[in-house]
Every structure is written in C-alpha cells, then in structure tokens.
Design a protein that fits this description.
The chain has about 140 residues and is an alpha+beta fold. It has three helices and six strands; from the N terminus they run ααββββαββ. It folds into two domains: about 60 residues; about 60 residues, no CATH class. It has a six-stranded mixed sheet. It is elongated, with a radius of gyration of 21 Å.
Length: about 140
C-alpha cells in the first residue's frame, strides 16, 4: 500500500515536471510564466509528499517482526474487543484476509493511550474505554 502511494506520488511529480517543461512560451509571456510556476509548485508538493512516504517506508522496514511482544510498543499487534491495531507507521486501515487492522504510528494519540500497557489493561480514547485482549 505504501509502495503504491510512493509510485503515485512519483508519477504525479514527473507529470508536473513534464507539464512545466512543455509549457510553450506564447505571446503572453506572463501566462507562460504563471503556468510554469504553478507546475513547478505542484511538482514540489509531490516531491515533498514522496519524501515523507519514503521516510515512512524506512521506518516500516525497520520494524522488528520477529519479536513476541508482551507490552504495547512499536511492532506490537494489539487486539481489543472492537479493533486490531498494529503499532508501526501511520497508514490507516489495512485489510488482511478478512481482518481489518488499523496501522498506527507510535506517536499517534491512539497509540499514546496504550503504549506500555499489557494484556487485560484498559485505555480510554475519545471517552471510550477499551480492554486489551492480547499483545503479540
């Protein structure tokens, strides 16, 4: 999912660069410069987005998948009565088979509410208390 987002950002960045390069100078020089500047801004926006996605990817590949977690920390899979969370990066909901997993950054508010907790501990988010059924 992350690799797909990176490819999309890269393609959009290249398309914006191509657009900036292909703007032909017309008799209305200001229109040419404005179009070129807008294409360059769009390219820069996509480049920045690609950079952030690449940073997230680097964080993701550093997550240790071999450790059996006893407490909630980066890399832990957390099951509650209502949701399954994987603490890794901010990716959102991922469907794996028939299971919905919310992939969250350890810096996110939800992860902050249960980091360091263990099975049978409770945490509260948005006024709702949840119990941790398991940590793996």
């Amino acid at each position: 999912m992350l690799l797909q987002r990176m490819e999309e950002a890269k393609a959009a960045m290249l398309a914006a660069q191509e657009s900036a390069n292909s703007n032909e100078k017309s008799s209305m020089g200001d229109k040419y410069e404005t179009g070129r500047a807008m294409s360059q801004l769009e390219r820069d926006m996509h480049a920045k987005q690609l950079g952030k996605l690449q940073e997230e990817y680097q964080k993701l590949i550093r997550v240790d998948l071999q450790t059996a977690h006893k407490i909630v920390e980066t890399g832990a899979l957390v099951r509650t009565e209502t949701q399954v969370y994987w603490v890794a990066i901010s990716l959102g909901q991922v469907i794996l088979g028939e299971e919905k997993i919310m992939v969250v950054s350890p810096l996110s508010p939800i992860a902050q509410s249960f980091l360091g907790k263990k099975q049978k501990d409770t945490f509260t988010v948005n006024g709702k208390t949840q119990t941790i059924k398991s940590v793996a």
